[in-house]
Amino acid sequence: MNYLPGGLRVRDLPENIDELFTSESLWQSWLDVEAALALAQGELGMIPAHCAARIAAQCRLAGFDLPALKADIALTMAPVLSLTHALAGLCGPEAGGYVHWGATTQNVMMTGRLLQLRKAHALLLRRLAQVLEALGDLASRGAGQVTVGRTNRKHALPITFGFKAATWIDEMLRCVQRLREVEPRTFRLVFGGAIGAMQSFGAQGPALARNLAARLGLRDSLVHSRNTLDSMSEYVLALALFGMACSRIGKELYILMTEEIDEVEEALGPGVIGSSTMPQKNNPKHVVALLARAARLRAMAAPALEAGQPSHEGDAASNQLIAELVDQSAILAYDLARRLDWLLRNLRLKPENMLRNLKLSADVVASENLMLLLAQGMGRQAAHDLVHELIARHKQAGTPVLELLLRHPAVAGRYDAEQLRHALDPAHYTGLSTEIALAATDQARHDAAAIRDAFPQAPCPA
Hints:
single chain, 462 residues, mainly alpha, Fumarase C, Chain A, domain 2, 2 domains, two-stranded antiparallel ribbon, elongated, disordered N terminus, lyase activity, AdenyloSucc_lyase_C, lyase
């Protein structure tokens, strides 16, 4: 097995994340739990050691009669029961009598699902390393490209496109941070028997839990209660926040792709068709798919909070709901990361259109800079009122702001034309946009490398 941070360890990961959540994959994860349980109990003397070894050796789904197993599951509607019956048959009368010793169905189901989720978690984080690199490249490319910053969907101040991308990096880094921070709370063993009070394991229950947790690379729990699902709900919420971050990026790019703005576009191939009836259209493809899936992932937050409220000491309805949410959200999150990675790497910037749009407010978009210059001689409020008045006259009559400034008695003779022109030039008022973009690029690349170091496995599937 390969070891991951915090004691996590996983088998080789599949080529496609969908393979993690098939029935066969789920059954194998249950068998992995049964094997570890038997070996732990054999080591502690709870069952004969040679029987434990026999059970563990048979915990490979490839050795099962799958059609017969599926038929029995359909009959019993108790998949773990059917699986352990089949396993006992493979182990023979003596060892088979110790299969699933003292455990309950929910112990095995929940633990097996954790093993699946942990593999999906590793795949997602390695894909997010690629997303961070793509965002870093985008911020680097646009670090010095002046564009207009917008607030309330109106021109506000000049920035660089790299600064815009840096805000996406900042948020994506927090998404990764959340996913790493929930690991110790999410990947913990809950294995306390039917209720959680270790009745079937007796005084050896805590030692068994510690041994089993170590074998599976999970953390031990203080209380092995089946009815505390908050950690799984928290994981789904972390994925929903990742969906929100993807949506923010996607929505911004989608708006910037409209003809009225046209500052970016997807680099689609020459054979891609935008519309079946409007030949002139070049509709975005990948960003709309990103937004649709991000909405679905975000929508899982509310039911995840519902699932975290099981009744009494166990509730199958809550268990089924959280299990479905975990499977669906993990697959959706990975698909989102894959699509975002493609979109960022195939995004074409249009600097000429960024400058064109900037010119729509070029005389006034750096008015804050002008105000700060004038405030040195007349105070901030007086400077604000003066600049506001002159811009209003500029918009009404079309007279250039510079000309109005040079005519105004409070300005004329105090500042020369070059000083005022420089203050009004958007290119001279992007603040630290370039520096912020480059710093974010460095951080994105650093954290991407750290993720790869923490999860050193094969490249992400395509």
